[in-house]
């Protein structure tokens, strides 16, 4: 039996690809970045933070099941816009069985003059069949 390897970088790339197809303003795909936006950044945007990885089951020292936790920041001009963005992120990550497990209060950033909502997601990767399992 061949067990597929999967790592945090691959997850980040996969999520980047999925989120890059979301149109929050109905005209242009929303920017997805890997660093905190600045005053020069294009808004709205999403920030993907580095995924946390935990091996939950291994076989002969090879990871079989991994649990990933990733935070995604939704930046926009208004609080409700941030909430709508988070809902669209939920929908996009459902395709790979991602589940939102936490949400922070919406904060106003004094530097960019934009709002930010941070949502945390969990995913379980199963190496035997190279897929993300449903979290129950």
Primary descriptors:
136 residues, alpha+beta, 8-stranded mixed sheet, 21% helix, elongated
Care to describe what's here?
By secondary structure, this protein is α+β, with helices and mostly antiparallel strands. It has two helices and eight strands, in the order H-E-E-E-E-H-E-E-E-E. It has helices at 8-19, 79-94, and strands spanning 31-33, 45-48, 52-59, 62-76, 99-103, 107-109, 114-126, 131-133. Strands 1, 2, 3, 4, 5, 6, 7 and 8 form an eight-stranded mixed β-sheet that branches. Strand 3 (52-59) and strand 4 (62-76) form a beta hairpin. The chain is elongated, with a radius of gyration of 16 Å. The two termini are 26 Å apart. The mean pLDDT is 93.
Helical content band: 10-25%
Low-confidence stretches: none
H/E order of the elements? HEEEEHEEEE
Form type: elongated
- Main pleated sheet: 8 strands, mixed
- SS element count, helices: 2
What value does the Rg take, in angstroms?
16 Å
Helix and strand topology:
Layout: H1 8-19, E1 31-33, E2 45-48, E3 52-59, E4 62-76, H2 79-94, E5 99-103, E6 107-109, E7 114-126, E8 131-133
Parallel strand pairs: 1-2
Antiparallel strand pairs: 2-4, 3-4, 4-7, 5-7, 6-7, 7-8
In short:
The protein has 136 residues and is an alpha+beta fold. The chain has helices at residues 8-19, 79-94, and strands at residues 31-33, 45-48, 52-59, 62-76, 99-103, 107-109, 114-126, 131-133.
């Amino acid at each position: 039996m061949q067990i597929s390897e999967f790592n945090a970088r691959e997850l980040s790339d996969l999520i980047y690809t999925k989120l890059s197809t979301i149109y929050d303003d109905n005209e242009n795909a929303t920017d997805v970045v890997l660093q905190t936006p600045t005053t020069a950044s294009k808004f709205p945007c999403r920030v993907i933070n580095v995924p946390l990885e935990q091996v939950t089951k291994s076989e002969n020292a090879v990871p079989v099941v991994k649990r990933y936790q990733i935070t995604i920041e939704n930046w926009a001009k208004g609080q409700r816009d941030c909430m709508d963005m988070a809902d669209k992120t939920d929908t996009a990550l459902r395709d790979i069985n991602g589940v939102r497990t936490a949400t922070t209060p919406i904060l106003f950033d004094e530097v960019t003059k934009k709002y930010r909502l941070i949502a945390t997601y969990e995913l379980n990767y199963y190496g035997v069949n190279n897929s993300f399992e449903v979290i129950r």
